[in-house]
Amino acid sequence: MQYDPERGVSGVSAPSNVLRDMNPGAESGGTYAADVLATLASGLGVDSIKSGRKALEVVRMRAPELVILSEQTGEDFAAVSAGFIEMMLTSLRPDDELPWSTFEQRSSDHGRLRAAQGVPLESLIDVLAIYRRATIELLTRPIQGKPRYDEIVALAQSRLQDITERITTAIARGYLDHIDEEHRARENEMYGLAAIVTAMSRSLDLGETAEVALVESLAALRLSTGALWLRERSSYRLLHTVGLDQDQVDGFGRQVGPHVKASASATGRSESQVDRVSSPEWNALRAQLKVRGRTVAMMTVATMVDRVFNAGDLLFVAAVADQVAIAIDRARQFASEARTDHLTGLANRREFERVMEREVALAERHGRRLSLMMIDLDNLKRINDKQGHRAGDEALRVVAQQLQRVVRASDLCARVGGDEFAVAMPETDIDRARDVATRLRRAVDHAAMSMKAPEQVEVSLGIASWRPGQDWQGVYQAADIDLYEDKRRRKTVRRWQEEERAPAIRLLGRARGRRRVSGA
Fold first, then answer.
1. Alpha carbon distance 242, 226 (integer Å)
2. Which has fewest Cβ within 10 Å: 96, 146, 206, 470?
């Protein structure tokens, strides 16, 4: 059966014991009506679930957003409706039996929840009116046509008016309390965003930037846990965490990390995207940090308690993500520039020394192989003197380009001096390193010929392999010695070649007062 707004809920009857307990002749006046209402309230409580289901159909017509929301969240809205109808039935009992504090707390919590879900307060008040009419229908059907019907109904209307007003006040108080908290939260978020921008502008360190972003975001959102991952090629590397023990890190990443499917998203004013993600253990917001179309990092902030993230939360994290993305990109550029030779794009000497120290430590710890190749551009000074420094810079770039062509992605190429280069080759023995050196020499010779310059690029090469107990400086010195041995051999060969090409000059004596020179 359907609920008619004019006639109420039909098809609901009181239990037979309620009708038996009604004795019109027992008392007169208000005492009789009050006793009847108390008896009805006790007996009709079992019908509140059925009445809640009937009321749900009316709510579906009058406030469809509530029903849709309950279906999306898995909430049993019929049970919620039955709870309010049961509250109203209970209010028909004598005042000294009413648990007003419980009613008001439940109503306040309901208002707070609906405010968090974005339901208009007017819709909640309209729904209360539906519950009140449903309660009246439950009461009037058993006593229809009975003596003093009007007196009983008038008393019921009066008491229901009172409970409805009290419930409405409690719901509104909870609703407005949530809105006030949200306003304060937004204010805190604004301060948090300003603090993030200010703090991140002071540092170009990646770790410090990640820590500031997480700590300030968690404080503004009143959350406890977070992590930030850097994007490196096609994977993510964990950079910093807050509120996680070491044994929780992997599980956190699997549940709410970079590769988890999102349930809702928001986009920042720039490019960053924020997703709402959840797992059996965590409720989280995850930000995809983007700059100029590139994803530079992922940041997740989370809590283990129940938390409904609203649109404001998503937009705040999106605004933070935009700022963090810019700061991380700037810090990475600075770090890259600090490690890179500006002319060739290769690593600089500082980065080369750092990597060599790390690779030697790994080789020592795990028994790995490690080789080092040194390269010297032999005739850079002659190129500069004859063709100018622009030609010299181009010669350096040619060597750098050919280096990158012949080595692996796991090898580190660096310019370690004005005309010197070095290549750290992990997991490479001496024979493999010599093969790479041969290919490099051929590649440089071929590139030099294609340049058609007056002075062709010439390089000398030195190779050394790390030995257990040796530090990186020892490997470097061995490769440098081999380099100068190769340079000496090349000079010797070049001198022989020049002598072979030179014409023979011999003094043959005097003829008619003039000297004859053979080959002149």
1. 5
2. 96
Q: What is the pLDDT of residues 210-237, one digit of tens each?
A: 888 888 888 878 898 999 999 987 889 9
Q: Which residues pair with 510 in a beta bridge?
A: 515
Equal CATH topology for 3-181 and 349-501 = no
Give how far Cα 349 sits from Cα of 210, 395, 413, 414, 432, Å: 27, 19, 10, 7, 24
CA-based max dimension of the chain:
171
What counts of helices (H) and strands (E) characterise the chain? 16, 14
Domain ranges of the chain: 3-181, 203-335, 349-501
In tens, the pLDDT along 447-498 reads 877 776 667 888 999 999 999 999 999 999 999 999 999 989 888 887 787 7
Beta bridge partners of 372: 424, 464
Amino acid letter, 214: L
Which SS3 state, helix, strand or coil, does residue 187 take? helix
pLDDT tens digit string along 398-412? 999 999 999 998 899
d(CA 77, CA 313): 26
How far CA 260 is from CA of 225, 257, 263, 291, in Å, comes to 17, 6, 10, 21
How many angstroms from the chain centroid is the CA of residue 51? 46
- Please choose, from the candidates 121, 18, 140, 135, the residue with its C-alpha nearest in 3D space to the C-alpha of residue 82: 135
Q: How far is it, in rounded angstroms, from Cα 277 to Cα 283?
A: 7
Report residue 31: phi and psi, to 5°: -60, -40
Task: Give the homologous superfamily in CATH for domain 3-181.
Answer: Globins (1.10.490.10)
What would be the CATH architecture of the domain defined by 349-501? 2-Layer Sandwich (3.30)
225, 259, 279 from 284: Cα distances, Å: 9, 13, 9
The residues near 510 (Cβ < 8 Å, ≥ 6 apart) are: 516
| Distance, C-alpha 89 to centroid of its chain | 49
Fold classification of 203-335 (topology level): Beta-Lactamase (3.30.450)
